[in-house]
Design brief:
The chain is an all-alpha fold and 54 residues long. It has 4 helices and no strands. It has one domain (3-53). The model has no long low-confidence stretch (mean pLDDT 92).
Length: 54
């Protein structure tokens, strides 16, 4: 795992939409993560880590 991946995962755990934004920008992954985070913090974290590591 690269250092950048590690930093993105840590950011994704603290602020899930920000972690996805750093990787993808304002694409659909970001908006999905934002909605999931608004519905519940845990679903946002799970989705963000999944998208970053896939």
């Amino acid at each position: 795992m690269a250092r950048r991946d590690f930093v993105e995962i840590v950011v994704a755990i603290l602020l899930p939409p920000l972690g996805v934004f750093l990787r993808f920008g304002l694409k659909e992954e970001f908006w999905i993560c934002l909605v999931l985070t608004l519905f519940g913090y845990l679903p946002g974290i799970i989705y963000a880590v999944y998208v970053i590591t896939k």
